[in-house]
Amino acid sequence: MRNTKSGNLASQLSTLTASDKKRSKSSESTKTVDKYGLYDENTFKSLLSAERKRTERTSRSFVLSLVDVRGLWDEFGKDGIGRSAEMMDTLVEALHRRSRDIDIKGWYRQDKLIGIIYPETDKGIQPVLEGKLKDALVETIGDHFHSHVGVTWYGFPNEPGSWDGHASKEAPAFYPEAAGGAGTSLRAVLTRVLDIVGSLTGIIAFFPLFVVIPLLIKLTSKGPVFFRQQRVGAGGKRFTLMKFRSMRISAKENMHKEFVKNFIRGESSEEAQEKKGVYKITDDPRVTLIGKLLRKTSLDELPQFFNVLRGDMSLVGPRPAIPYEVDEYRLWHRRRLFEGKPGITGRWQVEGRSSASFDEMVRMDLQYLERGNLWSYIKFIIKTPLALLTMRGAY
After folding, report:
1. Which of 1-15, 77-91, 103-117, 190-204 has the lowest mean pLDDT?
2. Are 65 and 129 in contact (CB under 8 A)?
3. 3-class SS at 245?
4. Cβ atoms < 10 Å from Cβ of 203
5. C-alpha to C-alpha distance for 300 and 140, rounded to whole angstroms
6. What is the pLDDT of residue 20?
7. In this structure, is residue 237 part of a structural domain?
8. Which contacts qualify for 143-147: CB closer than 8 Å, 24 or more apart?
9. 194 Cβ partners below 8 Å, 6+ apart?
């Protein structure tokens, strides 16, 4: 049995279909390769994003290894740049020799981290790849210098049920577009400035409601004024979202958990089907009298201006995910967690407003995150008051 298993692994490692060869050669001829035979950082990250998106649709796993060469540069830098370049040539030659033709090699972080993408590779094969790469490093560089090169391995997708609202440490590695380039960074800075100005303006403009609403909540029901709940923000990090409390303090979340699970899976209750797919439960018995008004007008979300001010959220972005819903996500749904901050408003809130299917909602989020600009940011802010006044899809 042992020999058979090894043979199967060897067979999987050596298999290279005609289509794989064609894809590999096509990529080589159209992408930027440096003097070491590695794709530059931008090209490699584009290829990594494309491989991840393919897996999101096909569920065919792949493995990513990151080789940290900073210690190697530091060590051989003592002997001059020529010696450093020579050792880098030797290292890259070893990486090429110990990997398959279909494996994609390039800079994950320019001159610091070399990335290798192993397409259509599951975790059963990963130990074999680890052994081959380790042997190549020791053989080429030697035991002494092997300590200056670090290798980290990641598998995509994660095991089912491994999230529970927390991104694993490896998850961000597969979303390099979330870090962005210079243009995206400029947009992020400008957006953050507008978020601060907008949230402060909102707090000041709605200050009378920050006085009246707490009084109404206290007069009509027992419990705290604010509702605090853990949500999943940018990069899969948790934060505490604030709302004006609209439910009774004895309300249990099991009802909503089950509803959300079915809704994401496209198996919503009869009520949700009749409403053409709503993310909120209509006629929720847990909601207080004043809470119904707050929810209908979305005034319960006013405290989220403080979340924006703290940097947990943006004025415009995807709806903040609840931890227990994230484990129900399909692979492609997770992109909404890594490509931008959650927001108070967004395309879904303006155009869908609780009346779109979950898949449609995620597509709206991704279209904004991937194609949006400052004008679309401003446009959705301008359109939000009209959506609130019509109260379409509000419950």
Report:
1. 1-15
2. yes
3. coil
4. 16
5. 63
6. 46
7. yes
8. 145/72, 145/75, 145/87, 147/71
9. 315, 374, 377, 378
State mean pLDDT over 366-385.
Answer: 89
In a domain, 168, yes or no: no
The domain total for the chain is 2
Total residues found in the chain within this entry: 395
Same domain? 309 vs 349: yes
Distances (CA, A) of 42 to 68, 82, 132, 212, 339: 18, 26, 27, 52, 16
Nearest to 132 by CA among 109, 103, 89, 172: 103
Biggest alpha carbon distance in the chain?
77
Structural domain includes residue 170: no
| Contact call for residues 234 and 338 (beta carbons, < 8 A) | yes
The amino acid sitting at 278 is V
pLDDT in tens, 90-106: 888 888 888 888 999 99
Order of strands, edge to edge, in the sheet holding 62-68?
104-109, 113-118, 62-68, 150-156
What confidence score (pLDDT) does residue 5 get? 44
Strand segments, DSSP code E, in 102-245 are: 104-109, 113-118, 150-156, 226-232, 238-244
Angle 354-356-357 from CA coordinates, rounded to 5°: 120
Those residues whose C-beta lies under 8 Å from the C-beta of residue 128, and which sit 6 or more positions away, are 9, 13
